[in-house]
What we know:
- The chain is an alpha/beta fold.
- The protein has helices at about 5-15, 15-30, 55-75, 90-100, 120-125, 150-165, 185-200, 215-230, 240-255, 270-280, 290-305, 310-315, 345, 355, 365-370; strands at about 45-50, 80-85, 105-110, 130-135, 145-150, 175-180, 205-210, 235-240, 285, 315-320, 325-330, 335.
- The strands form three sheets. It has a seven-stranded mixed beta sheet, with helices on both faces. It has a three-stranded parallel beta sheet with strand order 7-6-8, with helices on both faces.
- Strand 1 (about 45-50), helix 3 (about 55-75) and strand 2 form a beta-alpha-beta unit.
- The protein binds beta-D-glucopyranose.
- Beta-D-glucopyranose binds near residues 184 and 266.
Amino acid sequence: MSSCMRRIAISVAASTMTLSLAACGVLDAAQSGGEASPTKGDDITVGLLLPETANTRYEQFDYPIFKQKVASLTRHQGKVEYANAEASADKQAEQLQKMVDDRVDVIVLDAVDAHAVAEGVRKAKAAGIPVIAYDRLAEGPIDAYISFDNELVGETQGRAVLEALGDRAGGSARIVMMNGSPTDPNAKQFKAGALSQLNGKVTIAKSYDTEGWKPEEAEANMAEAINAIGGDNIDAVYSANDGMAGGVIKALKAAGVTDLPPVTGQDADLEAVRRIVSGEQYMSVYKPYPQEAEAAAEMAVARVQGRDIQFDALTEDKVDSPTHKGIPAQLVPVVSLTKSNIESTVVADGIYRVSEICTDAYAAACAAIGLR
Length: 372
Ligand code: BGC
């Protein structure tokens, strides 16, 4: 006798037959994967909303890695509906609404404006669609958050500035700070992490926030800083990411600065890695994209398929947003990327081949640091 039949027999004795039969029916359907199962199988649609294209990581790494992982987790039956907001919060609100209208099964969201997007998150939730915040902590009732340790990113950058300054670190070394977008909570964390290292050790001569993380805006702000301070009086530039570091270096060159100060970055953009090889950029922060994007895909699929134990195992950290406390999260560690560890980071992880980094123009510089 099956356990279900046995329970029916007991129930009949207890005169509660109707209730128990219903309970057995649900149990059997769930066990056999029948139609009454409360969760989905492999034929699912995952919405992915990324914030912009001016910085290369999203289209080059985040999206393709995520898509590939969803496919492999769902025996190639799951689909990814992808939209990029091109740094516009309004556009992202429309893209999010479309995914709700399309009734995707789950949404993975990298917010342009973490505060403004909360309304859209609430609508998705009300429509029964879980939302997982990706990289930037969106406000509103999100189910979970996956990102890098963003405070650590800033600390790593700040420490690199001090290391590059060496003996010149001290109250009188003059720094320009090029921070990220004010609508991106990560930018605040990067800045706080960097300042935890720099405060009291350098003079912050100029500090800018950069709308939409736009490289050309960082370039314009840097030109202004050079005008105000004098190109040769800038001892180091804290740039929160590589795209902006490119703009900063352009502005320094345009102003005729030949002995470039150390400039920081983040993302391990290919152009930045080349600038590190040639000595134009001091460092970047390597964030292992596969770890973030694959974990996001696993979280999304586990949530839709109702695999709660796996979901919980993927989100053992806890973070607070301005609207919600104790959000289940995973924070991935990061690595400082300099001339000395290109091989053991981006090359070893298969992000770039040496031949991609070391094109003809960089062959001599690559050889000089033993990259071949
Ligand atoms: C990301 C960075 C990126 C920046 C600009 C931040 O939220 O964490 O990796 O460079 O946005 O897109």
